[in-house]
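[recover] target loaded
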């Protein structure tokens, strides 16, 4: 059975659509950034799906705001025993108070925060917030150097930044690519997928058939990687069409 898929942009929100043999339209909004995915009955076309999404836009926006607020607040006490993610694995936080240089280390299944007793929760959070982009900065270069010759496209420059709703973005004219710092919490396969996705956009700006064909050629398992990146749904609602 063939599955058709599309990527629509509805009022600035990117939406992945999969057409299936189903009766109702399903809209899911996924953590952590509020990615929107739709399963639509085959008899609908992109324009009808877009219209349905526009009608449900207030609900979609509420879910996204809720997820983004939860993401900002979750796991923010910085105490021993908390769960924190790095490279797709869950680590238990261990806070070690001692003198000297504050730093973060991965040790087995532990994420160890070496701090001084006077360091506030805010400072501990800032320490970990700085650790993620540093890890990502180390990990990113391998992917563009691997994929540039395969894809015949050049990344002139890349940077890391905090983004609320996107995993990556790019400037097609300059060849500059930006990565969401949250990728340091995801599996390395996800980072590689975003690198290839953004590099493919240097060849094709849209998400239409040409883009999908490029992605299928370069990275046949990109859909599985994308799904892994987008996690399980937190909110899910079903409407009859
Ligand atoms: Zn894209």
């Amino acid at each position: 059975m063939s599955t058709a898929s599309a990527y629509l942009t509805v009022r600035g929100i990117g939406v992945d659509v999969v057409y299936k043999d189903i009766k109702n339209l399903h809209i899911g909004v996924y953590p952590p950034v509020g990615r929107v995915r739709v399963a639509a009955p085959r008899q609908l076309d992109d324009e009808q799906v877009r219209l349905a999404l526009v009608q449900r836009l207030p609900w979609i926006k509420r879910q996204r705001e809720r997820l983004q607020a939860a993401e900002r607040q979750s796991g923010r006490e910085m105490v021993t025993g908390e769960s924190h993610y790095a490279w797709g694995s869950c680590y238990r936080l261990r806070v070690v108070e001692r003198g000297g240089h504050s730093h973060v280390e991965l040790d087995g299944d532990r994420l160890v925060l070496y701090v001084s007793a006077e360091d506030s929760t805010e400072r501990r959070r800032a320490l970990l917030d700085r650790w993620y982009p540093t890890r990502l900065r180390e990990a990113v270069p391998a992917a563009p150097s691997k994929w540039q010759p395969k894809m015949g496209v050049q990344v002139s420059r890349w940077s890391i930044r905090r983004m609320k709703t996107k995993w990556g973005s790019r400037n097609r004219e300059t060849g500059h690519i930006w990565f969401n710092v949250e990728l340091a919490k995801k599996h390395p396969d996800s980072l590689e997928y975003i690198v290839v996705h953004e590099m493919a956009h240097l060849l094709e700006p849209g998400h239409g058939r040409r883009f999908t064909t490029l992605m299928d050629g370069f990275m046949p398992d990109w859909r599985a990687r994308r799904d892994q990146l987008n996690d399980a749904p937190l909110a899910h609602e079903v409407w009859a069409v």
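[recover] notes: The chain is about 40% helix and 30% strand.
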